[in-house]
Amino acid sequence: MDLKIQDVTFAYGEHAVLDGTTFYVPQGSFLGIIGPNGGGKTTLLKLLSRLLQPQGGCILLGGQPLAAFTRKSLARNLAVVAQDTTASYQFSVEDVVLMGRAPYLGRFQSESLADYEIVHHALAVTGCTHLRERPVTELSGGERQRVMIARALAQQPKVLLLDEPTAHLDIGYQQEILDLLKHLSTSEGLTVVAVLHDLNLAAYFCQELVLVHNGRIHACGHPARVLTPEHLEEVYGIRVLVTPHPVFGTPQVSLLPGTRSRQRKKTPPVHIIAGGGSGGGLMRDLTEAGYTVTTGVLNVGDSDWEAARALAVAVITEAPFSGISAERHREHLALLEQAGAVVLAEIPLGHGNLLNIEAALAAAEAGKPVYILEERGEAERDFTGGNGTRLLNAVKAKGTVVREKAGLYRALQETLGGLLNKAADEAGAPVDK
Fold first, then answer.
1. Total domain count for the chain?
2. Are the C-beta atoms of 36 and 14 separated by less than 8 Å?
3. What H or E segment, with its residue span, contains residue 361?
4. How far is 98 from 120, CA to CA, in rounded Å?
5. Going by DSSP bridges, is the β-strand pair 208-213/56-61 parallel, antiparallel, or unpaired?
6. Any residues with CB less than 8 A from the CB of 88 and at least 6 apart, and which?
7. Three-class SS of residue 158?
8. Phi and psi based region of residue 8 (left: phi greater than 0; alpha: psi -120 to 50; beta: remaining)
9. CB 35 within 8 A of CB 218
10. Considering the domain boundaries, does residue 264 fall inside one?
C-alpha cells in the first residue's frame, strides 16, 4: 500500500505543529523523516498511525482515507513501533510477538497453528528465534527493538511506521535494525516510514527523505536532493560539508566549525606544516582556541587544503598533484617569518613535499620554536628512500618532538604566552592574553 499525505494541518491548542504538509510514500519504499527537535516529526507519525486526527487535509492509505478504516482493518494494514520499547511485564518473547496477531482474533478466540507459524516467521526474519523463550525484561535494547519489530510484522502489515528505531542503540545494533528494515522494504515489499535523527544513517538506508522544519516540508526526495549544505544550514543552523560516500555514493554529512565569534589571542600566528589529512584537526582546535593560524604549502584538493578553506586559514597553495615550486617555497619562507611558533604535523614524506621539511628546518635554524608532532611514533611514512627521514631528523635536532596533541597545545600556550610577555616587557605595557 502507498501513503498520500495531502495538505495536512495540526495544532496543539494555539501552537501550530504541521501546516500544509504534503508528500507521497510509494509502495515498498523506505522513507526517512528527518528534522530538528520540535519540528513535527513525531506528530506526523502519530497522524499517520491515526493516534491523532488531522485538523485539515487528509491522509490516504492505499487510496482510502485513513479515517475510513476500522480499528482491526487498520491494524491489519499498518503497524507501529514506538520509540520507547521498555517492558515491565514478564512475558516471553514469543508471547509478546504473538500479541501482533490480535487484529485477526475474535474476543475469545485462541491462536491457531497458522498464527504460531506467522509468529515464528516474524521471529526468524528479525533474528529473534533464539530469544523465543526469554522474558522480554531480560533483553538488551537492541534485542528488545528487534522483538518489537517482530511483533509489528506478526500483524502482517503493508505499512510499517517507526519512531526513532535506532535511539539509544550502539552502532552495531543500529546497522542491524536498519539492515532489517531495508531488507523488509526491498525483498518483502513492505512500505517503511521511520523517523531518524542520524542524517548519515538516513542517507545510507532510505530511498527518500522528508525534511520537516517548523511544521512544513522544507525538502523531500532523494537523499542527495535533501541533504545539501544550504538546506541543513537553513534548518539546523549548522555549517556542514556534504560529500559522496566513498563506496556507494550516498551523501555523507560532516560538521564544519560553527560561526560563533571567537576572541582572538593577541599572539603571533601558529604556522602548521601539514598535508594528507595530518593537519585539519590541528587547524580546527587552534582556531577554536582563538589562535591565528597559517599553513602551507598545500596542493589544491588536499584534505588539509579543504580544512584551511573551511576555517578561513591563510594558506600557501600549490597546483594539484604538483611538487612544491621554488616560488611557492619562497612565499612559504616569508609566511614562516611572521609565525610565533611552527608545528610540523605527522605528514607522509615524499619527493613532492621535501621543501616543506626544509622550510621547517629553516625556521628552526632562525630560532623559531618548532614542534614536531609524532603521535604514531615509528610508523613508516618516508617514501623518499631515506632523504625525508634524514631531513626530518635534522629538524628534530633543533626543534621539540611532541608525542600527543594535548602536550603540543600546552607547549604552544607557554611559548606564545612567553613571547607576548617579552613583547610587553620591551614595550612597557601590560599583557592581555
1. 2
2. no
3. helix 354-365
4. 9
5. unpaired
6. 137
7. coil
8. beta
9. yes
10. no
From the list 191, 115, 177, the residue with the least C-alpha distance to 146 is 177
Neighbours of 376 (CB within 10 A): 10
Residues 356 and 137: their CA atoms lie apart, in Å, by: 61
DSSP state of 348: -
**Confidence band, pLDDT 50/70/90 cuts, at residue 125:** confident
Planar angle of CA 275, 264, 304, nearest 5 degrees: 10
What DSSP string runs through 394-408?
A: HHHHHSEEESSHHHH
What are the phi and psi torsion angles at 150 (to 5°)?
A: -60, -40
- In angstroms, how far is CA 280 from the centroid of its own chain? 18
Q: How many CB atoms lie within 10 A of CB 350?
A: 16
Same domain, residue pair 109 and 85? yes
Q: C-alpha distances in angstroms, 423 versus 193, 233, 334, 335? A: 63, 42, 21, 20
- pLDDT, one tens digit per residue, over 77-124 is 999 998 876 777 789 999 999 999 999 998 888 889 999 999 999 999
Interhelix angle 280-288/405-427, nearest 10 degrees: 50
User: How far apart, in whole angstroms, are the C-alpha atoms of residue 147 and residue 86?
Assistant: 11
**Which three cell numbers, joined as nine digits, stand for 352?**
613532492
Please tell me whether residues 300 and 236 are part of one structural domain: no
pTM > 0.85? no
The grid coordinates listed for 173 are 545494533
Instruction: Please report where in the chains the cell 491523532 appears, as a residue.
Output: 52
Q: Which domain holds residue 341?
A: 270-423
Taken in order 140, 142, 143, 145, is the CA torsion positive or negative?
positive
Strand boundaries in 145-269, DSSP class E:
159-163, 191-195, 208-213, 216-221, 240-244, 251-255
The CATH number for 200's domain is 3.40.50.300
Other beta carbons within 10 angstroms of residue 301's beta carbon come to 10
Q: Which of 190, 220, 255 is the last residue of a domain?
A: 255
Please, where are the H alpha helices in 274-353?
280-288, 303-310, 326-337
**Cβ(160)–Cβ(168) below 8 Å:** no
Q: Give the Å distances, CA to CA, from 260 to 230, 245, 257.
A: 18, 29, 9
pLDDT at 421: 61
Query: Based on the number of CB atoms within 10 Å of its own CB, is 19 exposed (0-12), middle (13-18) or buried (19 or more)?
Result: middle
